[in-house]
Write a structure and sequence with these properties.
The protein has 2 domains: about 120 residues, Four Helix Bundle (Hemerythrin (Met), subunit A) (Up-down Bundle), CATH 1.20.120; about 90 residues, no CATH class. It is mainly α. The relative contact order is 0.06. The protein contains 5 helices and no strands. Helices cover about 90% and strands about 0% of the residues.
Length: about 210
């Protein structure tokens, strides 16, 4: 009996060392990426424009989420192992349970932040597309009223066709962006969510405008 107890203590000690090492490694990775995210968010990366900074933030958040998932996994393994051998009420088991809860809360926070950044990027992209379409519509109106100083009707018609072609391409791009946003909202929030329904309506309107 004494030998069995000694063997159990040895196994527990080895397991705890391995688990602590895994938790420490994942914790370091998370802290490194949190510092990187802070640097990206404050613009210390020397980005050429806001779009480049947003992409860097999304990339860092994605890697941070992966690292946090590894941390949660390591903590859950330590908790399960300790609980199985020493019971749910053991002090070490309770500490692991608390750490798991905190790590899961942090993971949810990182995932929500990434969703928010994605939504902001989508909105900026849509604003840019809408501004481009407005500029093309103004250009088309100018051509239609003959303000381009065309030498003849054929030249004016060619200019109209050129602008209309660019408007069609830009409208198709808008529909693709809306479809991606709709798919994202449907996956994250559900098909019946307000976001998904709003994007579905915008896709319908944009498609109707394209076919007009």
């Amino acid at each position: 009996m004494a030998n069995e107890m000694n063997n159990l203590v040895v196994r527990l000690s080895l397991d705890n060392v391995n688990f602590r090492q895994g938790i420490a490694n994942s914790g370091r990775a998370v802290r490194t990426l949190q510092n990187e995210l802070k640097s990206v968010s404050t613009g210390m990366g020397g980005f050429a424009n806001a779009s480049q900074q947003t992409q860097a933030k999304m990339n860092t958040l994605s890697r941070l989420i992966d690292a946090q998932k590894e941390k949660v996994k390591a903590l859950r393994q330590a908790y399960d192992q300790n609980k199985a051998k020493l019971g749910e009420n053991d002090a070490a088991t309770q500490r692991y349970a608390s750490q798991v809860n905190k790590a899961v809360a942090d993971l949810n926070r990182f995932e929500n932040e990434l969703k928010q950044v994605n939504r902001q990027a989508e909105q900026k992209g849509m604003d840019k597309l809408n501004n481009s379409l407005k500029s093309l519509q103004a250009e088309f109106q100018s051509i239609t009223t003959g303000m381009g100083g065309f030498s003849n009707a054929t030249e004016q018609t060619r200019a109209k066709v050129d602008v209309l072609s660019r408007m069609v391409d830009k409208q198709k791009e808008k529909i693709r962006e809306l479809q991606q946003a709709y798919n994202r909202a449907k996956t994250e929030e559900g098909e019946a969510s307000q976001s998904a329904q709003r994007y579905a309506e915008q896709i319908h309107r944009a498609t109707a405008e394209l076919n007009r």
